[in-house]
Amino acid sequence: MSVMKISKILMVDDDMHIRRIAEISLKRVGKWDVRLASSGKEALLLVKEDLPDLILLDVSMPELDGPAIFAILKEDQSTASVPVIFLTGRVLHDEVEEYRKLGVAGVINKPFDPLKLPGEIMRLLEAE
Amino acid sequence: MNVLVIDSDQRFRRLVLSILEPHDLRVVQSTSLREADLELPVAHPELIIMDCVQADGSGLQWLKKKRAEGLKTPVIFCCSGSHGTEEFCQLIAGLGVKHILHKPLTAATLSRSLDEHFQRIATAAQPSPSTLDDIEREIKALSIEYIRELPERFHFLTRQVQDLKKGLAEPSTAKNEAHKIKGTASSYGVHDVGAQAVIIDDCLKQLCNTKTAASPELWQRLENALAEASRLAEQALAEVDASAALPAVYDEKTAMDAVGLTATRFQKIVIIDDDQDFTRRVSLILGYEDMLVYAFNDARRVLEVLEYLKPDLLILDLNMPELDGFNVCKRIRIDSRWRNLPIVFLTAQTGWETRVAAFDAGADDYIPKPVVNQELIARVRVRAERSKLQEEVNSQASVNKLLWQALLTLLLQARVLKP
Question: Which of A47, B47, B122, B200 is the most exposed place for a label (fewest CB within 10 A)?
Answer without folding.
Answer: B122
